[in-house]
Amino acid sequence: MEAMVCPMGSSSSSNSSRLFGTLAQTLSSAPLAQPDPYAEQNPDQEVDQEGLAEVDPDQLLRECEEALQRRPARPHRDLVYPSGPAPCHHNHSLNPSIRVMQWNILAQALGEGKDGFIRCPLDALNWQERKYLILEEILTYRPDILCLQEVDHYYDTFQPIMAGLGYHCSFLAKPWSPCLDVEQNNGPDGCALFYRHSRFSLLATSHLRLSAMMLPTNQVAIVQTLQCRATGQRLCVAVTHLKARSGWERLRSAQGADLLHNLRNITSRGSSGSQSEAESGAVPLIVCGDFNAEPTEDVYRRFSSSPLGLDSAYKLLSSDGQTEPAYTTWKIRPSGESCSTLDYIWYTNDSLSVETLLDLPTEEQIGPDRLPSYHYPSDHLSLLCDISFREQPHRLM
User: pLDDT: is 116 or 331 the higher one?
Assistant: First the structure.
């Protein structure tokens, strides 16, 4: 028997509460410090890998499948080519595609103690099995860049596991996380950004507390400037989670404006690193997040019309290439059923190209009780796409 990773989810059965070899070794291999996320100096340092167990992803995936054998399988999803013009063919050996995953994984404290999913059995939410369902999804697709929201098990679960899998890890908690209102919580939730260290080196990090009307808010963003080891090209990646609930549309719009202002400054600074990048404009940008905003909201219009030249990857699933999916989250709460598109992967359209997208499960696959459920761990669906740098004229000569 292993010590429980968190005090929540204690109703799990003896079969589901035990950890398996790889995961248990990883989580017990090294004590993990919890630094001040708003420290002025070095807000994001390299994780000290010494003492952290290396994780075999295939073995960990098998352990996830074993731990989940009594649960129904996750919905099958296909990687599909986007509609519209055929994807540009490039030399994958010289310019390999970058797999990006965006996912609000549902904070454990909120799922069990605050969100009120009236059609989801409480047992389906217990952390001792739900963590395997989350890890199974990540390990199935193995992204190069992983952007998560509502992470309240960063230090005891995601940081050691992802570091053992070869990822650099960064986390920023909300200043006043609603998780802290739940008894026996595991600390505040926040945004986390992971990138595969074999693919990228880190050039710069910004931890942002988003402002609205010159006032700080409870929402945050992580922005990292990376350099691709294969091509030498730079890439700026951001993850955020904007204010939830209806009635807060103006605040979300202001938060989006603040994030865009910061991203414009960061990508402009980064482009001065090399003449070729400066000639072709600012550093290419990927912004992932739960925006808590439908495409009709002002914050969506801000992003789609920004001078940064951003486009939404998942529009490419539609027949006209211009329409967002019908939903990225589908849940039933005491207030009623909510089927909404709130999650996005934005990218710089003139310098990045979307090659493939992970299709969304159908209503039948999701099931009548909606999300979360025994077969899916969050009320939000993961988004995933393969993105490549567009060939620049100076790189073809």
Answer: 331
Rounded to whole angstroms, what are the CA distances from 90 to 236, 301, 388?
A: 21, 32, 9
Integer angstrom CA distances of residue 214 from 49, 208, 253, 264, 327? 39, 14, 13, 18, 32
Average pLDDT over residues 376-381: 97
Instruction: Judge contact between 47 and 168, C-beta under 8 A.
Output: yes
pLDDT of residue 90: 56
Peptide bond into 82 cis (omega under 30): no
Report residue 194 as tokens. 């992971």
**What is the mean pLDDT of the segment spanning 187-208?**
97
Counting residues of the chain whose pLDDT is more than 90, the rounded percentage is 74
Q: CA-CA distance, 59 to 252, in Å (whole number)? A: 41
Start-to-end C-alpha separation, the chain: 62
Residue 22 to residues 19, 26, 48, 52, 381, Cα–Cα distance (Å): 8, 6, 19, 12, 27
Which among 237, 240, 314 is positioned nearest to 283, based on CA atoms?
237
The answer to whether the CB of 243 falls within 8 A of the CB of 273 is no
Q: Is 374 helix (H, G, I), strand (E, B) or coil?
A: coil
What is the pLDDT at residue 270?
61
Averaged over 387-393, what is the pLDDT? 82
| Contact call for residues 61 and 333 (beta carbons, < 8 A) | no
Between CA 275 and CA 388, with CA 92 as vertex, the angle to 5 degrees is 55
Q: What is the mean pLDDT of residues 41-62?
A: 68
pLDDT of residue 35: 61
3-state SS string for 124-147: HHCHHHHHHHHHHHHHHHCCCEEE
**Do 266 and 204 touch, CB atoms closer than 8 A?**
yes
Taking the C-alpha atoms of residue 144 and residue 196, their distance in angstroms, rounded to an integer, is 5
